[in-house]
């Protein structure tokens, strides 16, 4: 069956697909951490463009917006933690590069063999009028359990992030057994003082 | 161009992203670069999920839900990864995973 994508859409998918992989490779090739972050952003935006060409307007916009903000935050962390944020000198910080390359290439070949040998059932798909409405109705109806689990997962992440970000927890205040007579606080006051 | 051929091309691109991301996640030494590798793998999952919805089952919302779940996994991975990085750095002033190899399970 012929694809119902227009010629322009197929061209866009092909160009953006190549761009996404090229930007993905650039992440691990460039010398600067800031450049690596923006290469990753380019890869995400290319994938968002492909999703847009595939009629997934809402998911494409969410991907583009979320990843732009995420990479902006990531760039800040990169510059905070990395020894070579500006790319002023050559930099490779890798271990077991050959083994990793073999695993990456092996997984790609395995997936590609599967992709090109399977007889895909692409005949006569029935398209919804609006993919966003379809997703919204699924979230609020048949697939609500997925959203419930996602909500709990995100809430757990907030709690865990706060716990990890706290510089002094209750074990620092009250000892490993939580049985100190007085909490070890830098500033007096508070509970059990 | 047949729909099957376009689907196979898009899925091959997704497989390429997954392969590159896996290489990065396994080979990089700094924690933030490992996270970038994992994000690339999830980027491939996004692309494959979108292609599966459009070409295989657009009448069902399941592939779209998969993309939503992958996006959430990305956000959670990012938040927890940075929280762990900050906690590591605060405790030991380290930013390389090799320096924390004593935490191996």
Q: What is the structure about, briefly put?
A:
The complex is a heterodimer of chains A (193) and B (105). Chain A has 193 residues and is mainly alpha-helical.
Write up this protein.
The complex is a heterodimer of chains A (about 190) and B (about 100). By secondary structure, chain A is mostly helical. Chain A has 2 domains: about 1-90, no CATH class; about 130-180, no CATH class. Chain A has helices at about 5-25, 35-55, 55-80, 95-115, 130-140, 145-165, 170-175. In chain A, helix 1 packs antiparallel against helix 2 (about 35-55) and helix 2 (about 35-55) packs antiparallel against helix 3 (about 55-80). The longest helix of chain A has 25 residues, at about 55-80. Chain B has about 100 residues and is mainly α. Chain B has a single domain, classed as Helix Hairpins (Orthogonal Bundle). Chain B is built from 3 helices and no strands. The mean pLDDT of chain B is about 90. Chains A and B meet through helix 1, helix 2, helix 3, helix 4 and helix 5 of A and helix 1, helix 2 and helix 3 of B.
Features:
heterodimer, A: 193 residues, mainly alpha, B: 105 residues, Helix Hairpins, 77% helix, elongated
């Amino acid at each position: 069956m012929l694809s119902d994508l227009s010629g322009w859409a197929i061209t866009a998918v092909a160009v953006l697909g190549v761009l996404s992989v090229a930007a993905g490779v650039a992440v691990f090739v460039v010398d600067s951490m800031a450049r690596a972050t923006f290469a990753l952003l380019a890869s995400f935006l290319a994938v968002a463009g492909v999703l847009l060409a595939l009629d997934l307007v809402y998911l494409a916009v969410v991907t583009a917006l979320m990843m732009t903000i995420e990479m902006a935050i990531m760039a800040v962390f990169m510059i905070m933690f990395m020894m070579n944020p500006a790319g002023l000198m050559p930099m490779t910080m890798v271990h077991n590069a050959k083994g990793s390359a073999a695993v990456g290439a092996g997984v790609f070949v395995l997936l590609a063999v599967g992709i090109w040998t399977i007889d895909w059932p692409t005949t006569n798909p029935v398209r919804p009028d609006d993919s966003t409405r379809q997703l919204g109705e699924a979230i609020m109806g048949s697939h609500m359990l997925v959203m419930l689990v996602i909500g709990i997962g995100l809430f757990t992440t907030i709690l865990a992030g706060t716990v990890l970000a706290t510089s002094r927890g209750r074990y620092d205040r009250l000892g490993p057994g939580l049985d100190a007579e007085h909490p070890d606080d830098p500033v007096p006051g508070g509970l059990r003082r | 161009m047949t729909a099957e051929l376009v689907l196979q091309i898009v899925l091959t691109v997704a497989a390429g992203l997954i392969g590159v991301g896996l290489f990065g996640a396994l080979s990089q030494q700094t924690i933030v670069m490992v996270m970038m590798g994992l994000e690339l793998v999830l980027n491939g999952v996004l692309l494959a999920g979108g292609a599966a919805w459009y070409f295989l089952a657009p009448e069902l919302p399941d592939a779209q839900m998969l993309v939503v779940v992958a996006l959430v996994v990305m956000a959670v991975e990012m938040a927890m990864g940075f929280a762990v990085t900050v906690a590591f750095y605060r405790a030991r002033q380290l930013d390389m995973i090799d320096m924390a190899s004593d935490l191996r399970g």
